[in-house]
Amino acid sequence: MTIEEKSRKTLAELGVADAAAVPALFAELREAMQREREELIARGAGSEAERQQLAKALRDRWLGRKNGILAYLDESWLKSAPKDLKPVVGREFNQLRQLARELEIDRLIRDLTIRLEESPSVKGGIVKSVGGAIPWDAKVNVRIGASLTLPGYRRPLGSIHPVTRVQREIEDIFLNLGFTIETGPEIESVYYNFDALNILENHPSRDDWDTIYVDAQTVLRSHTSPVQIRAMQKRGAPLYIIAPGKSYRRDNPDATHSPMFHQLEGLAIDTDITFADLKGTLDFFAKKFFGEKVRTRFNPSFFPFTEPSGEVAVSCPFCDGQGCRRCKQSGWIELLGCGMVHPEVLRHGGIDPERYSGWAFGLGIDRFAMVKYDINDIQLFFQGDVRFLEQF
Ligand code: FA5
């Protein structure tokens, strides 16, 4: 039976009733897929037009939306799998899908070389691929046999970094609520980073063990909270902003810390803003980001620039709060710090605390991305390893 024929039959019709038999079935498909790709690449194309056509044909055979082998597998193996086979079929199918990304047209074209005609100027004939070693004709300064009419190589497009992806997702939620995006400098004055935020002279975070000082009055901002003050001074009240951006701390790199990381600040100032507005907004945000099922939990905390202050956790979206590996069996995942803007901070921003009140929060975008994509080492975000990044 050919691969196509198999892909159109259900597992029951193929006589597979046992989970142990599923991996072998998929291994056969993976081998066939790889073999076809390798054979095509070894054969090469005779012209640019043929290269495009061969790449498309192989891509369509496996990935065609309606008649591709994977589309059939999805219908007849995955969707119709009996309940007890579903997990193993799903896992194997995902692996196959990952591998099938090598059959995307851009990737095939990148690897599929064009066979060059035998050059009349080379006796004995040297026929090489564009990518291979082609002898050089010093007199005319071109590669012998190379067709100068060929189009250049297309570089494969990159993908959006997972931290950027999560940042944009969070931004979209708040933009839809009517917030605007504000930015501030990463090289910040001690005044904006600490003093204006009511972080007093003796606070441990001001220590140069924690904060990276450029000089006595200048730091690499240790959080995005200084943007609160800058935005208040620039725009006044009412004010509804978010401020995403890089922050820096003297934290040793480990699985959850990086000396450079990304935060996103939220700030709402208006007349009659209460803690209930903060709770409602963050609960809405958590549900939009993690799914409607999650619940939020507010615990008391302390930040010098908010009073009262809180820490927000979300019920684990993976186990529905039951306890699993990802929430360290606790059922909850810590999300962010927040609170009602301290009157002193409003004053520093030039806003009258008798007339206006506000709430603020600050979250770690990288940590959100780790939860979202189940990544257990923050360092992966900053190493630029294409094998990691191309999964997104
Ligand atoms: C703050 O930085 C406060 N400015 C947040 C805030 C804003 C509270 C407004 C109240 C009102 P904290 O130090 O907890 O809080 O940092 C916030 C988040 O930044 C953390 O929850 C964590 O997700 C992230 N974070 C902090 N340090 C690092 C680090 N070294 N690497 C990666 N993420 C970090």
**Unreliable runs:** 118-134
Helical proportion, percent range: 25-40%
Largest sheet: 7 strands, mixed
For the record, what CATH class of the largest domain applies? Answer: Alpha Beta
* CATH architecture tag of the largest domain: 2-Layer Sandwich
Overall form: elongated
Q: What would the CATH topology of the largest domain be? A: BirA Bifunctional Protein, domain 2
> What series of H and E elements makes up the topology?
HHHHHHEEHEEHEEHEEHEEEHEHH
The number of helical segments is 13
What is the terminal separation in angstroms?
36 Å
The tally of beta strands, per DSSP, is 12
- Overall tally of structural domains: 2
Care to describe what's here?
This protein has 392 residues and is α+β, with helices and mostly antiparallel strands. The chain folds into 2 domains: 3-111, no CATH class; 162-389, 2-Layer Sandwich (BirA Bifunctional Protein, domain 2). Helices cover 36% and strands 18% of the residues. The chain has 13 helices and 12 strands. The protein has helices at residues 3-7, 22-43, 48-63, 69-79, 86-100, 105-111, 162-176, 190-193, 226-235, 275-290, 343-348, 365-373, 386-389; strands spanning 136-137, 142-143, 180-181, 187-189, 213-215, 218-220, 239-248, 260-270, 296-303, 306-315, 332-341, 357-364. It is elongated and about 80 Å long. The two termini are 36 Å apart. 30% of the residues are buried. Adenosine-5'-[phenylalaninyl-phosphate] binds next to β8, β11, β12 and α12. Residues 223, 225, 249, 251, 257-258, 261, 263, 265, 303, 306, 336-339, 360-364, 366-367, 378 line the site of adenosine-5'-[phenylalaninyl-phosphate].
